[in-house]
Amino acid sequence: MSDPVSADFGVRMQLIVDVLAQTLDRAVLLDDEELTPVTHSRQLGELDDVRVHSVLQRETRAEVKAALFEFGIGAADSAVWTPAFPQYNLMPRFCVPVRSASERFGYLWIIAPEGSLPEHGQQLAERAGADLLAILDRRNAALRSEESAQQGLLMRLIAAQDPGQAQTVVAELHARAMADPHDVVQVFRFEPDPDDAGDPVDRSMALRLRLAATDRTRRWYTLAGSPTTILAVSRSDAGSAATADTVALAVRASYGTHPAIGSSGAPLPITQAALGFRQARLALTLAEVGAGSAQVADWSALGSWRTLALLGQAYGPDRLGELVHPGIVGLIEQGREDLLRTLETYLANGGDVRRTSEDMYLHRSTLYYRLEKLTEAVGSDLGDGETRFDLMLSLRLARLAGLYRPGSTAV
């Protein structure tokens, strides 16, 4: 889907680049701050390998990029000449940084094989850089305004409490070409690293762009925050099996970490996005306490954990802690993670000693010794069905209450 705002400003930038190239009779190129080509003029004058590669491949080779930044273009506040780099077949260039006091948009390049431009030509290039800066400033302001409006609509969508409210918001999304009334949605939530110094909104937007580039069958939206929310909107007949993997890979690539992610599970009608948001929120809570084995905890696949998550939402951690079996509390206070993990594995295997021994790489005699200690600690027979249910429930409640995490037995 084309963006009319970006398209309009793109036409203006192209015009400035073309006019400058025709006036100087030189090839002109506009790169972004990472030296990825944004636009370029037609091929005027003598060219070099770097120019040809950047136009054809839509990139600047890593070694050329490193050489230019080492020369100092990244710190330049005004126009600067870059020398020839014969080893890369790079001709001299007149470089005009396109930047404001707070933001660097990119670089305007004029190829000058002889290493010089008339004074008037340099002034024209600097004027073109200033004009591009003004356009990019206005474009960013327009995009921020549009982004703010979209974010407001999405916030209303995931907060809608009744079908009428949701249908009204979906109609507004449809008018903005953000969604169709019969679309479905999946919601994901994750907690960004609190030590990340990057701007959360910029990171969130970068994540959205990465998702859109990876999977073009969906419309992707992100809501920055702690936690951050992702909405994947698609037609009702679109497959959804790989969506969780797509999200996990994109989060890892954008943030450099692989946090626990909560998913609303199977796609829901877009008018039920608020339900999906609640499910993803609860799934994230469960993912953070170790429910399930995958990075993305799918609400629709979490079984009995879902009931406990709803109970935890209603009661709160303190009251949940009061429901934990006193024998489990005692083991937590004593720091007996070995016994707690043994009990969890034993119960998960339905009391099967052989499977538990294999899963934990324990000798049978060691396992029997631990089971004796557990029987003493809980004061009940581990073979009793009611006791097993109570202990499994207590272990999960202890996790939700923040009393116990695998790897930590701090109360």
Automatic annotation (TrEMBL):
Q: Where is the PucR C-terminal helix-turn-helix domain?
A: 339-397
Sorted alphabetically, which InterPro entries does this protein's record hold? CdaR-like_regulators, PucR_C-HTH_dom, PucR_C-HTH_sf
PANTHER family this protein is in? CARBOHYDRATE DIACID REGULATOR, CONSERVED PROTEIN
User: What name is this protein filed under?
Assistant: PucR family transcriptional regulator
Q: What is the lineage of its organism?
A: Bacteria, Bacillati, Actinomycetota, Actinomycetes, Mycobacteriales
